[in-house]
Amino acid sequence: MKKEEKQQKAEELHQELLNARAVILSGFEGITVSQDYELRRKLTGAGAKYRVAKNSIIERAAQGTPAEAAAAALNGTTSLAYTEGDPVSLAKAITAYAKENAVLVFKAGVVEGRVITLGEMNAIATLPSREALLAKVLFLINSPAQRTAAALSALSRNLAYVIQQGVEQGKFKEASA
């Protein structure tokens, strides 16, 4: 690969890493073509991108981005998975794949500008998705209003029931004019 090509690839990757909310660097030594295809399919389904690149290109591209600290001193074969979308989806997809295929080994990661460890990535992977968290928040916001409405409706319903019982039992007398 010529120097100009390397520089161009590094610049393209740099632009993508600037916008990435999460970047996961992993080793993939010994991965088969079918395993690689399956990994790419899962990551694309999670809204992420996946690349295999030389360590020098990754290090050059990561300069000036949040991924710079994670890309320092890479060795061996390295791939990167990154997303501008939901970091939880990326973490879930990559950890699920790594559990099924031991050939994918976590090297480093960055989520929202912070370098993470393998344990932190596993913790992120267990979080509910953004949509599920929003649904829970909306439920919690809506819950007091629903309870208040139910209590008010129960009051009027119970009052009507008591009045009906009183009329049936003849407890009310007609008012004389």
Return the CATH topology of the largest domain: Alpha-Beta Plaits
Which percent range describes the beta-strand content? 5-15%
Mean pLDDT: 87
CATH class of the largest domain: Alpha Beta
What helical percentage do the residues reach?
55-70%
- What is the number of helical segments per DSSP (H or I, 4+ residues)? 7
Tell the overall outline.
rod-shaped
Looking at this structure, what is the CATH superfamily of the largest domain?
Answer: Ribosomal protein L10, N-terminal RNA-binding domain
Number of domains: 2
Runs with pLDDT <50, length 5+? none
Strand order of the largest sheet: 2-3-1-4-5
Question: Which short descriptors sum up this protein?
Answer:
five-stranded antiparallel sheet; alpha+beta; 7 helices; 14% strand; 2 domains; 177 residues; Alpha-Beta Plaits
How do the helices and strands line up, and which of them pair or pack?
Layout: H1 3-19, E1 22-27, H2 33-45, E2 49-52, H3 55-62, H4 68-71, E3 79-83, H5 87-100, E4 105-111, E5 114-116, H6 118-125, H7 130-168
Antiparallel strand pairs: 1-3, 1-4, 2-3, 4-5
Explain the overall architecture.
The chain has helices spanning 3-19, 33-45, 55-62, 68-71, 87-100, 118-125, 130-168; strands at 22-27, 49-52, 79-83, 105-111, 114-116. The mean pLDDT is 87. By secondary structure, the protein is of the alpha+beta class. Helix 1 crosses helix 3 and helix 5 crosses helix 6 (118-125). The chain has 7 helices and 5 strands; from the N terminus they run H-E-H-E-H-H-E-H-E-E-H-H. It has a 5-stranded antiparallel beta sheet.
